[in-house]
Model the fold of this input.
Amino acid sequence: MNLAATIKDIKDMTGLSLATISKYLNGGNLLPKNREKIERAIAELHYEVNEMARGLVTSKSKVIGVVVFDIANVFTCTLLKYLGERFREAGYAAMICDSQNDAQQEADNIRFLVNKKVDGMIIIPVAQEAGFLEPALKADIPVVLMDRSLEGSGIACVKVNNRESSYQALEMLYNYGHRRIAVIGSDRELTGRERLDGCLQLLKDKKNEIPASYLKIGCHSIEHGYNSMQELLRLKEPPTAVFLGNFEIILGAVMALNESSFQCPSDISLIGFDDLIISNLSNPRLTLVVQPLRDLADNAAGLLLERLQNNKNTSGETDPEKQKQGDLILPAQIVEGSSIARRL
Amino acid sequence: MNLAATIKDIKDMTGLSLATISKYLNGGNLLPKNREKIERAIAELHYEVNEMARGLVTSKSKVIGVVVFDIANVFTCTLLKYLGERFREAGYAAMICDSQNDAQQEADNIRFLVNKKVDGMIIIPVAQEAGFLEPALKADIPVVLMDRSLEGSGIACVKVNNRESSYQALEMLYNYGHRRIAVIGSDRELTGRERLDGCLQLLKDKKNEIPASYLKIGCHSIEHGYNSMQELLRLKEPPTAVFLGNFEIILGAVMALNESSFQCPSDISLIGFDDLIISNLSNPRLTLVVQPLRDLADNAAGLLLERLQNNKNTSGETDPEKQKQGDLILPAQIVEGSSIARRL
DNA sequence: TGCACAGAGCGAAACGTTTCACTCTTGGGA
DNA sequence: TCCCAAGAGTGAAACGTTTCGCTCTGTGCA
Done:
């Protein structure tokens, strides 16, 4: 039916040339009289730029691809929210792809976004090697990682100081007088390994040996948290404090604890890594290592937008030295609840 | 540098015409020998279709726009996950836009997606009137709503039976012997109003009058839940049971309860509307009205995909009667925890 | 042997922009 | 008064596909 108006219709209506109208659309200088004419025509015709035609010529889409390992969790979607805000301010839209924790799908996502000619990408990766990024790098699309670095890839990653924060979390337990400290964590992703590292380092530094049964290493899942906590509580000598490696583990562990006869913090103290919102639900309120999600998103978005800007200026001739930026590591913050008891 | 290969490079390499190669790309019939030639060339050149050029000609993008009122919550992003799965299966990608609970931004999002020439839209709206959808409807883009209908708009909405489920939830409290029943809810969105309606209807049907102070009507926010619960507990005669209208309200209310000396369920019983996952954290486990998120997403995606299919077949000549579909209403399910005590 | 027809391939136009290189106009300084 | 530069506008080519209407080839049947 009524096909969308094009620049040609404006030309017919105003008598101006395509080039002039294009100039107007892209913010060039025009005689006020012509400017007015065009504006009237646009209003009357309800003209809207056809982004595909524009994209075809400029090979820019004003779209940023965001690839996340799993979209259905609070960590991810809060980041998405903040990222979205930044991009929108800068005139970019976000195209969000969920990898569903599957490396194959992640690789597909990258290819898909390359085809869509996104101008840049933010990625929270599933894979542990940078190979899957090749299509993007080949197409000269700037990439910024979040949360999980790809070691040795030379691709910048914005993340939290997992190691140091976990160290501090365990230090807190230690300073409260705890010696029988258990750790439920994951060694499946870098993030988890870094957190484990931090925990083990503190124990080592304090020469606070713990039995192997206190070390529950699996993946970041509700199940692992649930089972591990059950096992810990069943021990002849259960720990007096437990470090919970991420949101899902907290969820599972608290569930197991709630079903048991143990009380927090009188019987068992808890400190968790991740989300703030959940601490509202548990009683007592959990003490948590909280990631500065807003800062993480702001920095990642800023880094990417800056690159997009630079790429435009230097028209591709980017200094390879500048590309090889290291990680940007932000401090996490311990927010105290009342889930840690003092032991003397 | 190495510009992406185009169909023309394949032409040069194979000696075939552009039309033939295009035919190959779109699944037409070719001599095996030519098919092979093209495949070899594609592999060698790492050719990938330029979606913008294709889109310019076909004015199809194979992208579905998803506009959500707020991206940073479990309800939304779980839906996004399921929707994404369906769309991916059907060869579509999702472009997700966050309206941040702001009608202005929502209208911008619609315009943006129309410009991006998305093939269809799924919308969980902020606005209560359908006006903001005009750009999409004008451009003949099929739209399916979720969770919140736009009354009188004639646009299909996939949602849960808020009224009936809330009715049943209150009935459950009533059947457990509760008479002093309070309701914390929202009248800001249709969803909230429907739930309130259901609650009030049960009270009416049972001729179970409650004091005005038991009716806490505000918005779906943590704050409203928190403040309302505090106020209820401070009453001379507090309720024995409370209905919590959505996830955020549950969060706030449980927080207030945890800080008080009241115990659930001995002092006060709870039933909440929304998310399953949170019930794992609270102690005791909450009894909840749970929405069938997977079904909601499957149905919404199915409805939209079907329309896209039909539009293609009939090339625009859609029966206006068919467009004016009513809402698709799915039943929610009450999942019992142990947050309701028996009162006799 | 001739004919019709289906299948395969082709050339060129079209999609709606941007951009390059050019022309025209105007006004100010020498 | 003349000249020049800056500013404003223009026509045409280009971006990488799809698609329309056409031609060519070869097969099977009468």
Observations:
- Confidence is low (pLDDT under 50) at residues 313-323 of chain A.
- The CA atoms of residues 112 and 220 of chain A lie 28 Å apart.
- Residues 16-20, 23, 28-31, 34, 53, 55-59 of chain A lie near DNA strand D (CB under 10 Å from a C1').
